[in-house]
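Exam revision sheet. Question 4 asks you to relate a sequence to its structure. Input first:
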Amino acid sequence: MQIKRLFCLLVFVNCIVVGAGAFAAVPESDTNYLKLLEQRAMANWRCSSTDPKPVAVGFFVADDGKIYNARIKQSSGDNQTDAECLEAVCSLAPLELNPGRRITGDLTQVELTFQKVASEPISNNVEVANFFKKHADLRSRFIAIHLIPTNLLKRAANGLTPDQVDSENNLRLIPVGESTENKSENQLSKIHSYSGSLKEVYARWAAFLSENPKPTKLQILRQAADIERDSLPAQPHSLPPVFKNLGNAER
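Answer key, structure tokens:
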């Protein structure tokens, strides 16, 4: 199995192919595919910090469009900022096939760096920022994710509205790890403690969307209930249930 390595910093694209002891130009189809991944990841990125530090996320893309082993390679030092960048990558799946390549079992290694650039507006994760303002005591102990991914709003005819998905009622918390004496080890430990649950949630959404490319609102709400039951830890009692203010769809 061949592994190609592609690196990208926002709109600045630098690509190389790692071959048998030599470097070669990336095929144009791969470069275009990378730009598409980058554009979608940036569109998915919703940041609750007003001044986020850079975060690098590495992952593998298979020829069939599946994403593997998404991980933080450079941390911002803030758990929520790191988690939001990891969400942006995990919510890329399922990807369409690279039109310029056959399915061979090869993996493409990609690294995206998320950072604030004046010319590139960032979508604000207002509901997360407001939530932690009201629950400051939870800020150091949890990261918040959207149980129903916000990019589901882009799928036609599912009946969801922004006020339902971009809502504190759609937030779920994942605990971070305990502190250690070593600061760098502490941050890596925290990332490891929550990233497994976050990735499992998005892997289940990716599988669901592969089977249901244009899901209905009812299908989405049922999937959210299943994920919350099976893949997320018990939530603090102060949080509302997912179906509050999400409409009157049957469960």
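Marking note for examiners. The longest strand covers residues 55-62.
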